[in-house]
Amino acid sequence: MSVPWWAWLALTVAIAVMLAVDLFLHRDNHVIGFREAVIWSAVWIAAGLAFGVLLWVWQGDEAAGAYYAGYLIEKALSVDNVFVFALIFTYFAVPAAYQHKVLFWGVIGALVFRLVFIFVGAELLETFFWTAYVFGVFLIYTGWKMAFKHDAEMHPDRNIIVRLVRRIIPTDARYHGDKFFTRMDGKRAATLLFVVLIAVEATDLIFAIDSVAAILAITTSTFIVWTANAFAVLGLRSLYFCLAGLLRRFVHLHYGLAFLLAFAGVKLILSETPVGKLPIPVTLGVIIATLAVSIGWSLAATRSRPVPTDDSRTPPRH
Predict the structure, then answer these.
(1) Which of 63, 70, 211, 262 has its CA 20 to 30 A from that of 166?
(2) pLDDT tens readout for residues 170-228
(3) Which pTM value belongs to this model?
(4) Angle (nearest 5°) at CA 110 between 212 and 102
(5) Do residues 201 and 59 lie in contact, with contact meaning Cβ atoms separated by under 8 Å?
């Protein structure tokens, strides 16, 4: 799929404008309630779906199908991101009013990580056929780990990147409003909120590798992979405030996500065998069916659980 330079420029400008609007509307650091989160989630999802329609008109049904398949996988994996972010915010006791700011800058970091991984990954797959086997095995292993080690206890402050930042940058173990940096004994120091941001970025770095590899199993078109990632990630903040308190209902969703990662790994390996690439409609059907079964299974298993209020958004470990 050949994409002209102006399409990349238009997409970059559109993403920048959407981020600027979001930052402007939340400049007061207010606590985001469930109603506001649902509205913004609907806006971001509508934007992502509308882009798929635009892509269908512009490039045809195959490009649009690949985009929607990638978008669904990334959106589904975002739910697991949300769960981990909720654990990080609980672990560091982040005030609700400052969580959006952390997620906003976390999203910008996520977009940068994904952009780098997309171009590097696509170039490797196009240049060295055996990288398909490497990425495929990695995705299968990641799926196995998600399915059987999903409940492993998490300690964000032990993350190697978080420890490295704390060692290099003087840090005050307190919050100073919404500031990432402050003055301590006359010297510039990072606040605890900055440590939380690093923990979020370090965690998302792993998610970025998984999600990009999974979408590259569908298509190596950098434009489609990037747009699917970008539109899914742009709605990550509102998705967090919308779902964080409801994640206790999705007790079996990680099995579905694990299957999709393993499926993407097998699909990537098969692409370098006589079997070849699986048709996009088959891929899209597997993704939709897997998500429907895992979500339905989860909701049926937890139908007697009370729905949490806005004051208890953070889910327990399931």
Answers:
(1) 211
(2) 888 888 888 999 888 778 899 999 999 998 888 888 788 888 888 888 888 999 999 99
(3) 0.81
(4) 150
(5) no
